[in-house]
Amino acid sequence: MLGKPKELEGVLLVDKPTGFTSHDVVARLRRKLAMKRIGHAGTLDPMATGLLIILVGKATRISQYLTNLDKEYEGTIELGKTTNSQDADGEVMETRPVPPLTEAEVRAVMQTFLGDQYQMPPMFSAIKVDGVPLYKRARKGEEVEREPRFIRVAGYELTRFALPHLDFRLRCSKGTYVRTLAHDLGQKLGCGAHLSALRRTATDKFRIDAALPLEEIEKLPLADIEKRLLPVYAVVPSLVA
After folding, report:
1. Which residues have CB under 8 Å from 17's CB, separation 6+?
2. 223: part of which helix (H) or strand (E)?
3. CA distances (Å), 123 to each of 4, 113, 142, 144, 199, in order?
């Protein structure tokens, strides 16, 4: 008599494609691995690509630890246009001319975002108020009072200056809305802005270089996927007795 198939366990590093929600990636991997106990640590918006930490089997118990880790991103901001979602997936709400900014001026304003601060979450977010996600109210044109959240920005660097586009590299704490930083930067520069591209390149010690695109993972035999799983004791040694 055949025994119950072995359930996989560990941490899988996935390079999320654009157009997918984090839940979409989890659903695809549940089908691939024929397992229900799969989650993720740290949501990425559909527009964003990059590192998504997937927790397989009993590794889901370390979700809180991994979610709390600092993140690193690379992205592009487009000046002169604001959107209702603060990113390229939203509806353009206002268009303004971009002033003749210099690279030094932009760098100086970006430096004002460094350090500990409180950030107002955007209306287009999954945060719930009275049990209803904010994005559902935002789609109805509603504006709801929100509580600002504590964040820390450790680095906000300009990597390419090509008006109206600015490429950047960001290091920040969990819960930081990168699109809100882009929006707020545009406000400080006097022309408005939105986030036009975003890629998560790292979560603490986990780097995008070690991740595989979702499409490639789905083509692998289960045995090869198992080899790519990082054991819990290697990811969070303090949780192992």
Report:
1. 49, 213, 214, 215
2. helix 222-228
3. 46, 21, 9, 7, 22
Q: How confident is the model at residue 2 (pLDDT cuts 50, 70, 90)?
A: very low
CATH number of the domain encompassing residue 146 = 3.30.2350.10
Residues 104 and 192 in one domain: yes
Q: Do residues 39 and 104 share a domain?
A: no
Domain with 222, as residue range(s), is 10-68+205-239
Cβ-Cβ contacts under 8 Å for 182 (sequence gap 6 or more)? 75, 77, 86, 87, 193, 194, 195
**Residues with active-site annotation:** 45
Calpha distance 86→78 (Å, rounded): 11
Give the model's pLDDT for residue 143: 72
pLDDT of residue 5: 56
Phi, then psi, of 142 in degrees rounded to 5:
-85, 150
Which residue is it, tokens 């044109």? 141
CB 34 within 8 A of CB 220: no
**Residue 189: what residue type?**
L
Minimal CA–CA distance to 40: which of 19, 77, 66?
66
Mean pLDDT value across residues 182-209? 97
Q: Are residues 75 and 184 in the same domain?
A: yes
Strand, helix or coil at 37? coil
Do the beta carbons of residue 134 and residue 121 sit within 8 Å? yes
Tokens of 91: 């509806």
Closest CA to 86 of 190, 188, 181: 181
Q: What does the chain come to in residues?
A: 241
Report the candidate in 58, 59, 101 with the shortest Cα–Cα distance to residue 79: 101
Our count of domains for the chain comes to 2
Instruction: Supply the pTM of this predicted model.
Output: 0.90
